[in-house]
Specification:
Elements: H1 13-17, E1 21-28, E2 33-45, E3 48-55, H2 57-60, E4 63-74, E5 77-88, E6 96-97, E7 106-109, H3 111-119, E8 124-125, E9 129-130, H4 137-141, E10 148-153, E11 167-173, E12 186-190, E13 201-205, E14 212-225, E15 230-234, E16 246-256, H5 257-272
Parallel strand pairs: 2-9
Antiparallel strand pairs: 1-2, 1-4, 2-3, 3-7, 4-5, 4-8, 6-7, 10-11, 10-13, 11-12, 12-16, 13-14, 14-15, 14-16
């Protein structure tokens, strides 16, 4: 006998974190598969309001086929355990990359995905992050050097498969968020970042009581190689990792949220004129 599912009301900031993200599943050039994380933002601009899916560019490069997995909606709330997979042909070409090739971000509009699901009778449940909640330089400057962070995604491909929910994690900043680590728009977090965490949104809580702010996006993790040299590398998307004589040391590299805003502006300039 199957137990009756209780309603799940998304009525707190922590619960909303569970529905900011979308699971990314990919088939890679040369064989193999991968999983990663994307999240939804909503941006107000001169022509209206547009929702986008954001992830790492390294997660969508060299992909033959890919799909995004959403939770279904019912009566305005998530229908736990009911998921819908949107397969995207020419997956890699569907994404718009950040104009700076060193910034590991890519985006695509959400509307065509919602329309594809609706054509098959499915309503998708998402909780977009308003771009007004993206931490700018002033907001990051107000943070201390050591702050607690929260991030959400699918580490090592792990998720609650029965309820189709991602995994919530937390850690701390490892470098001051206001400072550009190594001169780039990024900072480090001291947290367990694993394959599948690519594209995870990272949040901080403001000291002024204004709640959670998107501080950035997980893009890379530091490895200790056999030579004892530390190197930052993109968080692997493959679920079939090979032994390469290196181990992760729980330092994740986060692209600052301002780069997400830049990417959205570049998309709108490119596609809407």
């Amino acid at each position: 006998m199957t137990a009756e599912r209780l309603p799940f009301s998304v009525d707190t900031p922590a619960k909303r974190l569970l529905f900011h993200t979308v699971r990314v599943q990919t088939e890679l050039v040369g064989g193999g598969s991968g999983t990663g994380t994307a999240f939804v933002v909503e941006h107000v601009h001169a022509r209206g309001r547009t929702a986008f899916v954001v992830t790492n560019r390294h997660l969508v490069d060299d992909v033959v086929h890919g799909s995004l997995v959403f939770t279904c909606a019912q009566d305005g709330q998530p229908r736990l355990g009911s998921r819908f997979e949107v397969r995207i042909d020419e997956f890699g070409e569907a994404w718009h990359r950040h104009p700076d090739p060193t910034i590991d971000l890519a985006v695509l509009p959400l509307a065509p995905l919602l329309q594809a699901a609706a054509a098959q009778g499915a309503a998708l449940y998402v909780q977009p992050i308003a771009t007004e909640r993206l931490a700018d330089a002033e907001r990051l400057a107000a943070l201390d050097a050591l702050e607690e962070v929260w991030f959400v995604g699918y580490p090592s491909g792990v998720w609650d498969q029965v309820n189709a929910l991602p995994i919530l994690r937390r850690g701390t900043t490892a470098t001051p968020p206001a400072v550009d680590f190594e001169g780039a728009p990024q900072f480090l977090i001291d947290a367990a970042v694993y394959p599948g965490s690519s594209g995870s949104p990272v949040f901080v809580r403001a000291a002024d009581g204004s709640g959670l702010w998107l501080a950035g996006v997980v893009a890379a993790v530091f490895f200790r190689e056999e030579s004892l040299r530390l190197t930052p590398q993109p968080v692997p998307a493959s679920t079939a990792l090979e032994a390469v004589g290196a181990e992760m040391i729980d330092l994740g590299l986060v692209v600052k949220a301002q780069a997400v805003r830049e990417l959205l502006h570049d998309y709108l300039r490119h596609w809407q004129g």
